[in-house]
Amino acid sequence: MVENFDNIFYLILFLINLAALAFYGYLTAFNPKQLINDYEFGDDSIGAIRIVGTFVWAVLIIGVIILFRGPEGAWIFFVFGLTVSVLQLLIDLGHRMKIIDSNYKVVNKTQDTIISIVFIVTNVILINGLSDKIY
Predict the structure, then answer these.
(1) Other C-beta atoms within 10 Å of 13: how many?
(2) How far is it, in rounded angstroms, from Cα 96 to Cα 37?
(3) Are 92 and 112 in contact (CB under 8 A)?
(4) Fewest Cβ atoms nearer than 10 Å: which of 50, 51, 55, 82?
(5) Residue 112's Cα: distance from chain center in Å?
(6) Is 106 left (phi over 0), alpha (psi -120 to 50) or beta?
(7) Both ends of the chain: CA-CA distance in Å?
(8) 24 contacts: CB under 8 Å, gap ≥ 6
(9) Distance between CA atoms of residues 56 and 95, nearest Å
(10) What is the pLDDT of residue 106?
């Protein structure tokens, strides 16, 4: 595995990304009530949470395959992760600045902003560090 990612540093960053995806996958599939309570979604949102979770699980499964097979040619996986994280950060900041959905109650947590930034940084580092393999 280490040889697939050039060195242990990139492997650890990749594992951190997978662990975070697994955590969100767990929340959406097995503990959606926590998300409903934390973000005040309402009980009717459980279906939407589980639908979003299917996307998280799909990315997680592809990531596990990349972990064992190597990242060769998997640039789209990393670019997709970076793009999603950038968009999540923009939406989060838009909510905070009342640019987006200012007429609605939106729960913003600092941890969500930090997590988006961490995903952005790790994906940029992985894309740059593994560019000889993923492209």
Answers:
(1) 18
(2) 20
(3) yes
(4) 51
(5) 11
(6) beta
(7) 19
(8) 53, 56
(9) 22
(10) 87
